[in-house]
Design brief:
heterotrimer, A mainly alpha (332), B mainly alpha (301), C alpha/beta (262), A: 332 residues, mainly alpha, ABC transporter involved in vitamin B12 uptake, BtuC, 3 domains, globular, C: alpha/beta, Rossmann fold, 2 domains, 40% helix
Chain lengths: 332, 301, 262
């Protein structure tokens, strides 16, 4: 087995082991319910942030309405489970498909065009969805919200563990899906659109097709995140899915590093954790988050992951005898 | 009031509202024409202008007179012109050669920052304030009511648009603006100070937004930190409707948006009035993305 | 056999007629140069041929097996897939991607496996990836940049960036290659290397080549036929000798005064 494969097996093994340990800790109450909730909530944020990273970080098309996609997935799943007694897994998946359809419909006229219209259209879309949800009282419970969505199991004591497991399995699935897609020719085609749309087109890449593919898949994944959220949280209210929520995802992606899966995952957990523990800064969050966006864009567009790469490079340069060479592609 | 009269009334309301949208749309379109950036923060400049005027009038502590009204105007326009230049230099200029999405994200960041920064500043605060306004007089024209404020809004807007038109088409800096928006590289080679021209464009756009803010606050006399969001979005749609990058287009688009909104409010439902803007955007993007008077702001290959 | 045909091509930008009634016919294997003063419309013609702009009037045909296919109005990626590739005046490499990736992307439309197969990492996926990688490395070797395959394109020296752009275009398997000022910014030695490279790839890949250039050494050195453009119209056409001495060409480049003094 090559070095590369050995490394991958080692990482996979490590992750599998830690996953099982955490599950055990939650089950036996060593990790309390509250912490488990934060972890689960973080997992959901990571799933949706990854979907945003796919269209914005990898394809280079800014989307500002992913809270809207989350809402569609959440309400669809809730409706299926509560009104049609659909079991959880199909309900989540169908919720994702419904969201993907919305994504396809608003993406089609928008992504055809040259220019940055996706940002404004998704911004408006997110708001429209929110207003629609408030007005569609019969399905969504309107402004009062939708209560009593059954969780993953009727056995209440098992809920923290099961929520965690469900969310984490979906999160792992999302990571594998996006990672495998990106490291393939289709992924390279997608990235080339971000790099230089005109050159990409000239090299035979059907740019519109891949923008649509990326955006629709992104909507699908965000819808799944929403479905998981509905079952996990048990209560939905349209105000949860406002523009600021879309911004939360944007900050996770930008701060972590656009186009970096590891960055999004790590930052998703860090920020969700911080949001819980820095609740007293809640009011200032709306000032701090945009500042983060501005500062990152101006000074470190590659985000935290870029910072980590810089540190690794610096260490290799300053202590060359430790690991020796610069990696291919680096200049000293 | 008969339907015909109702219609005319809403037309009047729409023209007044539309002239405000036109002023804002001009800022969007000029900036997009010259640096290909959707300046999300533009609507929030409107809010800053309104608050600038608010502080002037509150500080004057007298009843609003034509003099103080004009003073508020000029101060607001000047302050916002400077703010516009600062934002451009600090946040957008460094990203001129970066991928487009970076500048867009920064613009969104600036917008949210201004909105919520204003909210947490104690002098402004999250709660709406009453904007001191001129005492109202209503005129009656063939059964249709026009308030003095509406007339002022319309006339001031037209005056500013004429002034802008003069600057763009008959002055040297206006020519430079047109040159830079057409071909930045060539303009540079012709010896035009591109940076100055871009800053000037932002300054004018922001000044117009400030004027719109004052007019908006005078007509709908409440000011609060989020007041610029909806007008900003609608004005952006107006700019796209008229043809992004086209100045006459922005003016036309603004009026159309205003009239569409008031007609919807009057005849269909007031809730739908906001959604109409989004609907118009989708229709335009599907049917004629270059807008009514569209100019192709294309990339040189 | 005609590979490319432009018939009465015109394009208007607003009120300006940038190119008017342009005609061109390229035979298989030809190496043709398109020259003319700046702003004459050369890149505009390239952009029309490659689908970036649609001509306002006229037709463009590209050879497909036994017939000529109308391509005016098609999108760039469609035209590329029909067997035409180009390079850009200002080098449009995927700067933050590796040399290898730049070439692999140009090969993408030939890939058979679909997205699902990449996500589930089927054996077919691995096989095709390995084949694509090999093809890309072979191509890079021809251009002597295979050692740098993992370097970011932006880190390459200028001359190698230009070579990479040509390699990338070749990865699309074209029969017709359009080069837009390939020698721009090169010193005399690099230009000579480039001339050899162009002739080499024409042989090796059975290409028909149309190039835009300002460097007269290159143009006169390798082009078999030359078309001269000024203000969107053809003012001369012929072999290098004829063009060199054509008074209209000299006037277009150097202006009236020189002609008067000549």
């Amino acid at each position: 087995m090559s070095d590369y494969m050995k490394k991958k097996v080692r990482i996979a093994g490590f992750l599998f082991l830690s996953f099982n340990i955490i599950v055990g800790l939650i089950y036996w109450g060593i990790i309390d319910e509250y912490t488990a909730q934060i972890l689960t909530f973080a997992g959901i944020n990571v799933i949706i942030a990854l979907s945003l990273n796919l269209i914005s970080g990898f394809t280079g098309q800014l989307a500002l309405g992913h809270a809207g996609f989350m809402a569609i997935g959440a309400y669809s799943t809730a409706a299926l489970v509560m009104q049609l007694q659909v079991p959880n897994l199909p309900a989540i998946l169908v919720g994702g498909v419904v969201t993907a359809i919305f994504g396809f419909v608003i993406g089609f006229p928008t992504l055809r065009l040259k220019g940055d219209y996706l940002a404004i259209v998704t911004l408006g879309f997110g708001e429209i969805i929110r207003v629609l949800m408030i007005n569609a009282e019969k399905i969504t419970g309107g402004a009062a919200g939708l209560k009593g969505i059954p969780s993953f199991t009727k056995n209440i004591s098992l809920n923290p563990v099961l929520s965690f497991i469900w969310v984490f399995l979906f999160m792992a699935g999302t990571i594998i899906l996006i990672s495998n897609l990106i490291r393939s020719s289709h992924g390279r085609a997608i990235i080339s659109i971000r790099e230089d749309e005109i050159a990409s087109n000239a090299m035979g890449v059907n740019v519109f097709y891949y923008k649509m593919f990326s955006f629709t898949l992104s909507a699908f994944i965000a819808g799944i995140g929403g479905g998981l959220y509905a079952l996990f949280f048990g209560y939905l209210n349209p105000t949860m899915f406002n523009f600021l929520k879309s911004c939360d995802f944007l900050v996770i992606v930008v701060l972590g590093g656009m186009g970096s899966i590891v960055g999004t995952v790590a930052t998703g957990f860090i920020l969700t954790y911080l949001q819980e523990f820095l609740r007293f800064l809640q009011d200032y969050r709306l000032v701090i988050y945009p500042l983060i966006l501005i500062i990152i864009m101006l000074f470190k567009p590659t985000g935290l992951i870029g910072l980590v790469e810089d540190i690794k490079k610096w260490r290799r340069r300053t202590f060359p005898d430790q690991k020796g060479h610069l990696k291919a592609g680096e200049r000293s | 009031m008969g339907v015909g009269q109702q219609f005319l009334q809403q037309m009047v309301n729409g023209i007044a509202l539309g002239s405000i949208y036109a002023l804002i749309a001009l800022g969007y379109t000029m900036v997009y024409g010259i640096v290909q950036l959707i300046n999300f923060a533009h609507g929030d400049i409107l809010m800053l202008g309104a608050f600038a005027g608010f502080f002037v009038l509150v500080a004057a502590a007298v009843a609003v007179t034509p003099l103080t009204f004009i003073a508020a105007f000029l101060v607001a326009m000047l302050v916002c012109a400077i703010i516009g230049i600062i934002i451009e230099r600090a946040c957008y200029k460094p990203l001129r050669n970066a991928p487009r999405i970076n500048a867009l994200i920064t613009a969104i960041g600036v917008s949210i920052f201004i909105e919520n920064g204003a909210r947490v500043i104690p002098q402004i605060g999250p709660n709406p304030r009453q904007y001191p306004t001129l005492p109202n007089i209503s005129y009656n024209l063939a059964g249709v009511g026009i308030s003095r404020m509406q007339a002022i809004v319309f006339l001031v807007s037209i005056a500013l648009m004429l002034l802008l038109n003069y600057i763009i088409n008959y002055t040297k800096i206006g020519k430079a603006m047109r040159a830079v928006s057409y071909d930045r590289g060539a303009a540079l080679l012709m010896g035009i100070n591109v940076n100055k021209v871009i800053s000037f464009t932002f300054a004018i756009g922001s000044a117009l937004a400030a004027a719109a803010g004052i007019l908006f606050a005078s007509a709908y006399p409440q000011v609060e930190p989020y007041m610029g969001i909806m007008p900003g979005l609608k004005a952006f749609v107006a700019a796209v409707l008229g043809g992004i990058g086209s100045i006459p287009g922005a003016m036309a688009g603004g009026f159309i948006m205003g009239i569409a909104e008031t007609l919807t409010k009057g005849f269909i439902s007031s809730q739908l009035a906001d959604a109409i803007a989004f609907g118009i955007l989708i229709i335009i993007l599907v049917v004629k993305p270059t807008g009514i008077l569209g100019r192709n702001v294309s990339e040189k290959v | 056999m005609t590979v490319l045909k432009l018939e009465e091509i015109s394009i208007y930008f607003g009120g300006l007629k940038a190119v008017s009634s342009f005609n061109l016919q390229l035979e298989e294997g030809e190496l043709m140069g398109l020259i003319g003063p700046n702003g004459a419309g050369k890149t505009t013609i390239f952009n029309m041929i490659t689908g970036v702009y649609a001509p306002s009037k006229g037709d463009i045909y590209l050879r497909q097996k036994d017939s000529l296919k109308k391509i005016a109005g098609l999108k760039p990626y469609q035209i590329t897939r029909l067997g035409m590739a180009r390079t850009f005046q200002n080098i449009r490499l995927f700067k933050d991607l590796s040399v290898l990736d730049n070439v692999r992307i140009a090969h993408h439309f030939n890939i058979q496996y679909n997205a699902l197969q990449s996500i589930f990492r089927t054996p077919g996926f691995y096989k095709e990836e390995a084949e694509a990688m090999e093809k890309a490395l072979e191509l890079l070797k021809l251009f002597n940049i295979d050692q740098k395959c993992d370097e970011l394109a932006k880190n390459l020296p200028y001359g190698e960036q230009r070579k990479l752009e040509i390699a990338r275009a070749l990865a699309t398997n074209p029969r017709l290659l359009l080069l837009d000022e390939p020698a721009a910014g090169m010193n005399p030695q690099e230009t000579i290397d480039l001339m050899q490279l162009i002739q080499f790839i024409r042989e090796k890949f059975n290409l028909t080549i149309l190039l835009i250039e300002h460097d007269m050494n290159l143009v006169m050195g390798i082009c078999e036929r030359i078309v001269v453009l000024d203000y969107g119209q053809v003012i001369a056409e012929g072999n290098p000798e004829a063009i060199k001495h054509n008074p209209r060409v000299i006037k277009a480049y150097l202006g009236e005064e020189v002609e008067a003094g000549a």
